[in-house]
Amino acid sequence: MDxxxxxxxxxxxxxxxxxxxxxxxxxxxxxxxxxxxKAQDFHHVQHxxxxxxxxxxxxxxxxxxxxxxxxxxYDYGRLEEIGGAPYILAVFESVTTLAxxxxxxxxxxxxxxxxxxxxxxxxxxxxxxxxxxxIDQLLEEAKRHFSSLEGDAQNEDFRTLADVLKDYIxxxxxxxxxxxxxxxxxxxxxxxxxxxxGLQNGSLVIVAARPAMGKTVFAINxxxxxxxxxxxxxxxxxxxxxxxxxVGRILSSEGRIDFSKLKTGTLDADxxxxxxxxxxxxxxxGVFLDDTSRKVTQIIAKCRVLHRQQxxxxxxxxxxxxxxxxxxxxxxxxxxxxxxxxxxxxxxxELNVPIxxxxxxxxxxxxxxxxxxxxxxxxxxxxxxQDADIVTFLLREDxxxxxxxxxxxxxxxxxxxHRSGATGSIKLGFRGENARFENVVxxxxxRVPAG
Length: 451
Known about the structure:
The chain is α/β, with parallel strands linked by helices. The chain is built from 17 helices and 9 strands. The N and C termini lie far apart (60 Å). Helix 6 packs antiparallel against helix 7 and helix 10 (215-230) packs across helix 11.
């Protein structure tokens, strides 16, 4: 395969091929390499795909060789992306001895570290041009970025208790110097942030509800609010609707424009003014939309690339049960959901960002007199409740009331699981016509209007 002759980031194509060839030739080498390398350590996307495919075969307890790898990539529609079966065979045949495998692994790691140095240096250059960043903060960012690289280069899996204690105390001191109680990402919802201390890096948060409860709107609101308030990039993967429909809901919320008007184009002069203001404001927000990826492997790969190229602070997925996992589940949907929730939790830890995943509740909620969701209502739940750090349910009680009764436009966010805090619930206002959740203000008369 021709990788071109133009200047690239540091890499060693032959070393990457030798590592992949060794993995196809020996199970012992495969296990050793699996411990030391991550997919992103390979420079070429083709090699990243091959490596991830081989790890998938290992997870499914299948043999790894040129034949099984070719079949696996073909089944998932990725074979042509890596150059087809001839390239896999060429990589396999390029390795005649396994004696130098460790040397090639070290070369791949060295080039990977060099690329990380360049990427983080470029990020620091951009931060250095920011006149609002204090020099102390810039220096701290430089130390953090490059000290973490030292551990990556050494590829240390074990950490001594003394080292962990040192890091823990340093982080505790950093938190103690912060003003306020929010240590994670601000969501724009005060009660939610107070309950969770913000969305925490490495956490998997499930937002589950029956249809019409507002779960998609809630997730989108969190994404846009987090991007703006924390000045981060957010990736939204929407498997149920197109990107244009998602943008319609974002504009409705931002401009407080009736969503039905946006669907029909029946906007008045005030609506057009609001739309212009909303569009100008949103153009500065770092939100990336994807409405084409359904396979969990595709979502993971795209998040890794976006994180490497742009920086990523939050991932939102709507919704979990529409995702497709591996075929290793043998048609068992519950097992497939379990694999996907576990993969998302591992991705959150790998990228050190929160992931908010929307989930659908089963119809059993509708058949009960008490409509409050419980954990067993998670459809095809698998191990969602085990993998998630937070599981929330949305409940609009007025949705179940007779039409003649007044609506209070309130949504209860029920914390059914909270690994680092208390369970319980909070209330938010819901403006369905504007695709918008809002904080509530409690007044002395006892009424709770949307604020």
